[in-house]
Amino acid sequence: QVQLVESGGGLVQAGGSLRLSCAASGSIFRYNTMGWYRQVPGKQRELVATITTGASTNYANSVKDRFTISNGNAINTVYLQMNSLKPEDTAVYYCNAVFPTGGRLTNYWGQGTQVTVSS
Fold this sequence. Notes:
mainly beta, 7-stranded mixed beta sheet, 0% helix, 57% strand, globular
């Protein structure tokens, strides 16, 4: 069973930076895609950024040029560098990973880490 461990959330002032980390364990395979999603109360979870093992990236328009997703040195680890944070970035951020499992792709989620940006 794949488990995702997130770290790096917290409270920061507008214009500041945070780096989120997500480490996946429990699979002998490399992930297919890993990424970050975020959710605020009363709204649907939304894509922030994703990355493939080939380092192809995808970003939400709202975070382009401010956030950077990258593969970590450790296998099945990704980082999300968040710069120029805005109050509207406040949300619970969830790590997501897609792994090959039994001949198909399976979706996994972390428990979430709170990011709060004060104005």
